């Protein structure tokens, strides 16, 4: 068992990029090629700061790609766009909208897309789940809600409320907000991790709940809570490591993280860099079907990724420049190209405090190792 977690250090500076804020010029890369900073969508300059944020991607069985993000448009109720690419991320078109169908509030924050690897909860393999935070424009309270699509994310059907936050939905300690869902299948259950400010003992903690039918949810289990009230561990991402059948945030059981030792990621070069703020981590096989691969992590503090082998030893994190703009909770995902080769898809909606340069962008690069 590994005792390791990759969590966000939610301090004020983690909301700001340390990289220069440079506007991205739209361009058209070749289909299925490697590319950087390809613009999917540029928000109008009349939108509210930060205009776009928090990108999330998904690849379907036909190799098409989906991407969604937060948008800060003046529409009320708010809905979130889903874009689709059929050429490896070179070109994109708006495909559908992720809408609140039951609360009358809108769908506003932290969308995530997930495809069932197997039949589950009465739905076939390949069913797409969309989960997001629904709230009214005054941010008085919120639900994390789940929807399902059986037509490739063209339309969605409401399934259940995962969690309710009585609000206000802000990042102020003491406000009973909920945030940032992350999904994982494990032993016949779907786990939903999220950030939770409802416990008066903690400014914020990370928790999870599970379901077997997509409609009923177990009581929450604590995953991470700091030993001082103002501690904000941020958001959860979890990756399965097939080499040793472990999980990173990280243990042999992805439902038992609480009280595990938190190890920081530090680059193994002379810079000793620590990627902090809005983390994301995945396992990337080096070849399709192989159990050999690398862990890839990033934070919004810089544009690099940090890689390690399956052991995730603290002194073994290698910093790699992939020439892709950083972003708040930058999404990383392994995809297959049109020849079946594996690549790394990187997606960002931008950063807080940089509305004039924020856009929904993607990059496609070889898997670093």
Automatic annotation (TrEMBL):
Cleavable signal peptide: 1-21
InterPro entries, per the entry: Sialidase_sf
Keyword Signal set for record: yes
Keyword S-adenosyl-L-methionine: no
Superkingdom field: Eukaryota
Keywords from the named record: Signal
Residue ranges crossing the lipid bilayer per the database entry: none
Listed name of the protein: Glycoside hydrolase family 93 protein
Organism: Fusarium anthophilum
């Amino acid at each position: 068992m590994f005792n390791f977690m990759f969590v966000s250090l939610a301090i004020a500076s983690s909301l700001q990029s340390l990289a220069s804020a440079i506007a991205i010029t739209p361009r058209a890369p070749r289909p299925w090629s490697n590319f950087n900073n390809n613009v999917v969508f540029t928000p109008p300059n009349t939108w509210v700061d930060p205009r776009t944020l928090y990108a999330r991607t998904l690849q379907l069985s036909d190799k098409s790609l989906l991407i969604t993000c937060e948008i800060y448009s003046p529409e009320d109720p708010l809905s979130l766009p889903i874009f689709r690419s059929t050429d490896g991320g070179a070109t994109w078109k708006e495909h559908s909208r992720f809408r609140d169908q039951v609360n009358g509030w809108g769908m506003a924050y932290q969308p995530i897309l997930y495809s069932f690897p197997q039949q589950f909860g009465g739905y076939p393999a390949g069913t797409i789940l969309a989960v997001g935070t629904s709230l009214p424009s005054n941010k008085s309270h919120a639900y994390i809600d789940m929807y399902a699509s059986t037509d490739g994310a063209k339309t969605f059907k409401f399934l259940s409320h995962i969690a309710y936050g009585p609000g206000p939905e802000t990042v102020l300690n003491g406000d009973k907000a909920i945030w940032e869902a992350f999904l994982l299948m494990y032993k016949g259950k779907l786990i939903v991790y999220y950030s939770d400010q409802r416990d008066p003992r903690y400014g914020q903690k990370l928790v999870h709940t599970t379901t077997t039918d997509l409609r009923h949810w177990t009581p929450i289990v604590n995953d991470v809570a700091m030993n001082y009230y103002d501690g904000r561990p941020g958001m959860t991402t979890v990756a399965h490591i097939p080499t040793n059948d472990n999980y990173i945030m990280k243990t042999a059981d992805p439902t038992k993280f609480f009280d595990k030792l938190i190890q920081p990621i530090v680059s193994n070069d002379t810079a000793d860099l620590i990627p902090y703020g809005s983390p994301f981590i995945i396992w990337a096989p080096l070849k399709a079907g192989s159990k050999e691969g690398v862990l890839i992590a990033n934070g919004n503090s810089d544009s690099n990724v940090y890689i390690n082998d399956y052991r995730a030893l603290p002194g073994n994190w290698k910093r790699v420049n992939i020439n892709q703009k950083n972003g708040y909770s930058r999404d990383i995902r392994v995809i297959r190209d049109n020849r079946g080769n594996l690549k790394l898809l990187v997606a960002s909606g931008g950063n807080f405090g940089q509305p004039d340069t924020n856009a929904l962008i993607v990059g496609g690069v070889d898997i670093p190792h």
